[in-house]
Specification:
This protein has 353 residues and is an alpha/beta fold. The chain has twelve helices and eleven strands. Strands 1, 2, 3, 4, 5 and 6 form a six-stranded parallel beta sheet that branches. Mean pLDDT is 87; it is low at 1-32. The structure holds zinc ion.
């Protein structure tokens, strides 16, 4: 998107000029105390921060509220896992289990430790130290709906504003990237996307297999997000972890006006590797060149199941080091502001308006 279009986008989505100025003009903002993240609005649209999934053993990589406060994070997703009931011995149906996972998020809100993003006016617009984190209640896996549209209404009423349509199994909506099959969204999947567009929920295509992804883009009237992924290594498209994205797939998401968010996953390919913050930063440069920086974002999957992190990444607290590598790779302050949160907040502003 070009600058003028982007400004129009800001105006249309009701976002303040502070946020939009932040994303493209790098206006000075209130200091955060950490020089690398000062003035940046940091937003992570995919994480499972403790105490969500609290029945799992404590994992120090989970982005705790204190760690998020250290870097003055503005917004983080709190994603329940919608198909967890299928993968581990849990009590109750996927719907009940997902609702139970979201309970602690509600408690955090009740105690004033977070504020929930329910409408555009709830989104952070200025990086201010000491403000409570804005929590984006999310569900990873439409399995939680159990094939019933009214369950989407129930979750929306509860505060959920983002749904990853498929997760680690083919479900009532569509196919996932680890599946041996692929296909378009089901009738139910189409109904879910249309309802999410209408009620103001962010449609996440992470984990969706190619044809499912393509049909989500055709059905959705609103921009999409891929909340946690990364591109295949140069010259190795189609080989490597199945969770990676081809350029064609990322162009589909960008074509909706959406954002593709990249994560700290480390892996080696046949020729290349992605195992350092430098590799990650150079990948962001390639994405900027090919897709436009306005379509690139951060999505850590913090607290999720990434098997290996790139060297130098421990948790969201390592973000200042990634920012340093982004600078070394030639990215500007405006690019950095857009990547670490500006683009995701712009998208949410439009969806929640
Ligand atoms: Zn995931």
């Amino acid at each position: 998107m070009r600058r003028r279009q982007f400004l129009g986008y800001c105006a249309a989505s009701g976002l303040s000029s502070a946020l939009c100025g932040q994303s493209i003009g790098g206006e000075p903002q209130e200091s955060t105390g950490n020089p690398a993240t000062a003035g940046l609005l940091i937003a992570d649209p995919h994480a499972h921060p403790y105490p969500i999934n609290a029945t799992r053993s404590y994992d120090p990589a989970k982005p705790l509220l204190e760690i998020m406060a250290q870097i003055n994070m503005a917004l983080s997703a709190f994603a329940a896992v919608g198909d967890l009931a299928y993968h581990s011995r849990r009590f109750g149906t996927p719907f009940m289990d997902t609702r139970d996972q979201l309970l602690p998020v509600k408690r955090l809100e009740e105690k004033g430790q977070i504020r929930l993003a329910l409408r555009a006016a709830d989104l952070p617009v200025i990086a201010t130290a000491g403000k409570p984190l804005v929590g984006l209640m999310a569900i990873e896996g439409g399995d939680a709906l159990e094939g019933r549209l009214e369950n989407l209404d129930t979750f929306h009423a509860y505060g959920v504003r983002m749904l990853t349509l498929v997760h680690d199994r083919d479900n009532e909506l569509g196919y996932n990237q680890r599946s041996g099959n692929d296909g378009r969204l089901s009738r139910f999947g189409i109904d879910v996307v249309e309802k999410m567009n209408k009620t103001g929920m962010l449609v996440d295509v992470a984990h969706a297999k190619t044809q499912t992804l393509q049909s989500i883009a055709e059905v959705s009237a609103m921009p999409l997000i891929d909340s946690h992924t990364s591109p295949f290594l140069p010259g190795e498209e189609g080989t490597g972890p199945r969770r990676l994205r081809t350029w064609q797939e990322m162009e589909i998401v960008a074509g909706t006006g959406g954002v593709i968010c990249t994560w700290p996953l480390a892996y080696s390919g046949k020729i290349g590797h992605r195992d350092s913050l430098k590799d990650w930063a150079e990948e962001i440069v390639r994405m900027k060149t090919r897709l436009g920086i306005e379509h690139c974002g951060l999505g850590t999957d913090g607290g999720g199941g990434l098997p290996h992190f790139v060297q130098g990444w421990k948790s969201i607290a390592s973000l200042p080091d990634l920012i340093g590598e982004m600078r070394n790779a030639g990215l500007t302050q405006d690019d950095i502001a857009a990547f670490v949160g500006g683009n995701v907040l712009r998208l949410l502003g439009k969806i929640l308006a």
